[in-house]
Amino acid sequence: MSGNGAGDLDSILLKHAADKPNVTVLEGFRVTGLLWEKSTVVGIEGLTREGDRAQYGAKLVVGADGRHSTVRRLAGSPQLISVPTDYASYVGYYEGYKQEGKIHTELYKIGNKIAIVFPTGGNQHVIGVMFPLDDEYWTVRFLNSPNTAIDDLVNVSFQGTPLARRLANASLTGSIKGLRGYNNDWFQGMGKGWALVGDALSFKDPAVGQGMPDAMVSAAILTDVLTASVGPWDNNWGLLAELYQSQVEAKMMSRFQMACQFTKNKTFTPQQQAVNKLIATHPQATTAFLGVYNHAVEPEQFQELIVQLVEQLQAKT
Length: 317
Prior knowledge:
- The chain has 317 residues and is of the alpha+beta class.
- The protein has 10 helices and 14 strands.
- The strands form 4 sheets. The protein has a 5-stranded antiparallel beta sheet with strand order 7-8-9-6-10. The protein has a 3-stranded antiparallel beta sheet with strand order 1-2-3. A 3-stranded mixed beta sheet has the order 4-13-12.
């Protein structure tokens, strides 16, 4: 996701990588193809910023190149899951958004509208709003004037919430970015000589705010799998791929499934409404729910807590 906060993180990560021994950074290089030896990827080819063609050999080519990954397409990674969204998503970076107490993530769902707020770098907050793709009124508003439409949607759909009050005193930096008609996708993460991390591996609905965390988690898992490998990688691609896939699924799949639920415009059942009320009114449940977003709490742990709280409430009645 683009924006000032993401840009700051990109610069920090790039500098960190460039400072490592035996690391060469080449900016502005566009990959146009993979180099193959039989069925194994052994490097990349592409164009420099100046338009010169160049090739580079590699023991492993990692595609960290986003939702429309070139490496994934060229490697032929199979798509394992694809769940289309019912929502349009628009996001902006704001200064002066003041939260009471500790900084935290905010999530709102009223009717068929969703909003999410989370802090980012430079004392800014990311504010995103989602509405159904078949909502013609807001579709036209956002296509014509997204910078003002986001304020109007919040004031209309989230009137009386802390979000509307806080947004009124905040200022947009840059411009509103939109995403329409996306799928929640999960791909095979590794093959002979190639691997995928971040959105190239698994893109999910922005409502769960897991793009950057999953990029770091998948990169860390890939590093651990490769480091723990016994013997040459060339002799173990199948095992490495199996280990990587199983570990990223164990760590990331539950939040991906959350996104697949969020991405559908379905009316809450009475049971879901009761659980949502419990989350909103019970401090322990609220903390655990928000903890899912920053990986302090796993979704399975959150579910167990909700079951315990419901049983406690039923025992008192």
